């Protein structure tokens, strides 16, 4: 996808702007809060993006797209996709780095290779959320998001961190700071290499999961107990109940996991990798069956946001960590 198309998709000719808010039942203008809005297209409607502090300086969509130029100009990668989240209050771009190779986990029974594709994903939120980025990994045979690790780009100085507050800019030089955004992305090679190292670690974990069959906990239990324990641990984010002694009514997620373990896309109902893939399919594609604390929503954009930054992201990370620990205990 070209930068010209990304400019069109994100309607970069339309500014994100502040506007005055009035107190309820009054003509008085609030001095401690501003509204934030964006017009989706030259003749499109204004979209209210929320309320922000009066010192907020929104990073424009054009500046975000301009910051992608070094990835293309230096031949580092290509823009795979870009789009809007939350009606335009957040924007994203996914970059395919040419030297970040796909990882082959196994060969499926039908002869296809089970591969995982790595991406660098950048997201900017208008208002309170700063620009963030990191790696996202997609499983080819099902388009499941296997892992996602996006963080605010300021701690290590590897990427430009776009402030949204004028008071944090020396002498208020907002225009100068945003214009120099691409110039500050001088260490992108170091950034993607660090992300790639973590991707390789994750892929080694997935290959280990593929090497370990799912087994019952004891001779008196069944494989379904193992599946239920895994589902409960990921769902609750804490120690799961002792299902072997107490027993309990299976949750919706446990029932779904049992089905996806054997019939999910690319799942073969045998190894811990199959079980982990069943969980990622549930998290990636099951609307309306959100885990505890998750936000409901059928829209793909909402699911993507949750997988990258929201409640499902925490459970996605817990899914891999839990599967790895439980597989080690059964290996």
Textual characterization of the structure:
With 331 residues, the chain is an alpha+beta fold. The chain contains eleven helices and nine strands. It has helices at 3-9, 61-66, 69-73, 174-179, 181-184, 188-211, 223-236, 252-263, 272-285, 300-309, 311-330; strands spanning 16-22, 29-39, 46-52, 77-85, 90-97, 103-107, 113-125, 132-139, 144-152. The strands form two sheets. Strands 4, 5, 6, 7, 8 and 9 form a six-stranded antiparallel beta sheet that branches. It has a three-stranded antiparallel beta sheet with strand order 1-2-3, with no helix packed on it. Strand 1 and strand 2 form a beta hairpin. Helix 7 runs antiparallel to helix 11 (311-330). It is globular. It starts with a helix and ends with a helix. 37% of the residues are buried. Mean pLDDT is 80; it is low at 167-172 and 288-298.
Question: Could you outline the blueprint of secondary structure elements for this entry?
Answer:
Blueprint: H1 3-9, E1 16-22, E2 29-39, E3 46-52, H2 61-66, H3 69-73, E4 77-85, E5 90-97, E6 103-107, E7 113-125, E8 132-139, E9 144-152, H4 174-179, H5 181-184, H6 188-211, H7 223-236, H8 252-263, H9 272-285, H10 300-309, H11 311-330
Antiparallel strand pairs: 1-2, 2-3, 4-5, 5-7, 6-7, 7-8, 8-9
Helix pairs in contact: 6-9, 6-11, 7-8, 7-11, 8-9, 9-11, 10-11
């Amino acid at each position: 996808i070209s930068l010209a198309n990304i400019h069109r998709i994100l309607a970069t000719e339309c500014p994100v702007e502040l506007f005055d808010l009035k107190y309820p039942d009054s003509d008085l203008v609030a001095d401690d809060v501003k509204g934030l809005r964006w017009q989706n297209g030259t003749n499109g409607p204004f979209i209210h993006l929320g309320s922000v502090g009066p010192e907020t300086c929104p990073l424009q969509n054009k500046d975000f797209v301009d910051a992608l130029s070094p990835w293309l100009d230096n031949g580092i990668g290509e823009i795979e996709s870009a789009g809007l989240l939350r009606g335009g209050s957040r924007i994203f771009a996914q970059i395919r780095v040419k030297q970040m190779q796909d990882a082959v986990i196994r060969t499926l029974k039908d002869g296809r290779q089970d591969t995982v594709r790595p991406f660098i994903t950048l997201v900017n939120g208008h208002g309170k959320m700063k620009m963030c980025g990191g790696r996202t990994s997609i499983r080819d045979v099902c388009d499941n998001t296997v892992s996602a690790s996006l963080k605010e780009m300021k701690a290590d100085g590897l990427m430009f961190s776009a402030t949204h507050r004028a008071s944090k800019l020396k002498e208020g030089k907002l225009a100068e700071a945003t214009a120099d955004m691409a110039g500050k992305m001088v260490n992108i090679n170091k950034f993607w290499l660090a992300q790639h190292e973590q991707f390789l670690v994750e892929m080694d974990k997935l290959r280990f999961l593929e090497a370990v069959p799912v087994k019952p906990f004891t001779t008196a239990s069944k494989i379904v107990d193992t599946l239920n324990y895994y589902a409960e641990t990921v769902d609750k984010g804490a120690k799961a109940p002792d299902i072997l002694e107490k027993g309990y009514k299976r949750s919706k997620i446990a029932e779904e996991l049992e089905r996806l373990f054997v019939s999910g896309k690319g799942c073969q109902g045998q190894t811990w990798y199959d079980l982990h893939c069943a969980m990622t399919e549930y998290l990636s594609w099951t609307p309306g069956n959100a885990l505890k604390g998750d936000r409901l929503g059928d829209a793909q954009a909402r699911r993507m946001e949750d997988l990258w930054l929201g409640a499902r992201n925490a459970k996605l990370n817990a899914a891999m960590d839990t599967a790895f620990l439980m597989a080690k205990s059964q290996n």
